[in-house]
Design goal:
The model has no long low-confidence stretch (mean pLDDT 82). This protein has helices spanning 3-28, 37-46, 51-89, 94-123, 130-142. The protein has 146 residues and is an all-alpha fold. Helix 2 (37-46) runs antiparallel to helix 5 and helix 3 runs antiparallel to helix 4 (94-123). This is Heavy-metal resistance protein.
Length: 146
């Protein structure tokens, strides 16, 4: 076998081994839960929402998805401005500081919008449903994510 053929075989085998490693890692290792998964589980599967509550929840979620997407786009733009400032100043200069402050403002707006969304969802619940919802919110905010 020529050295070129051996090199091609080695590359193909390395690629197949990498694919197998990724597959095995996904199958064998637990996947981290996304923040809010438990809250979503409670709302959609444990609180036995009636039809009216489900319709109102869907409306709230649809509106929040649009708002969250817009804020996430704003944060990405802020990150691009921060990268540009870092590239220009090569240090922690006034443009970098201003870009960081702007980025933090967008993050704060997303957090405020998320809290407003949580409180709006809570408002559509009956009094017997709120304790479980509140517990899920507290759990989502205090559980280690790493």
């Amino acid at each position: 076998m020529t050295s070129t053929k051996r090199l091609i075989v080695c590359v193909v085998l390395a690629f197949l081994a990498a694919i197998a490693g990724v597959f095995l890692a996904r199958v064998l290792l637990p996947q981290p839960k996304q923040p809010g998964t438990a809250l979503h589980e409670v709302l959609h599967h444990k609180l036995a929402l009636d039809g009216n509550q489900q319709a109102r929840l869907k409306s709230l979620e649809d509106r929040f998805a649009v708002q969250r997407h817009a804020l996430e786009l704003e944060m990405r733009a802020d990150n691009a401005r921060l990268a540009e400032a870092i590239e220009t100043e090569h240090g922690n200069g006034p443009k970098v500081t201003a870009a960081v402050d702007q980025s933090h403002a967008a993050m704060g707006e997303l957090q405020k919008a998320t809290l407003a969304h949580i409180f709006a969802m809570r408002q559509l619940l009956r009094p017997d449903q709120t304790p479980q919802f509140d517990a899920a919110v507290v759990k989502a905010l205090t559980d280690d994510q790493g």
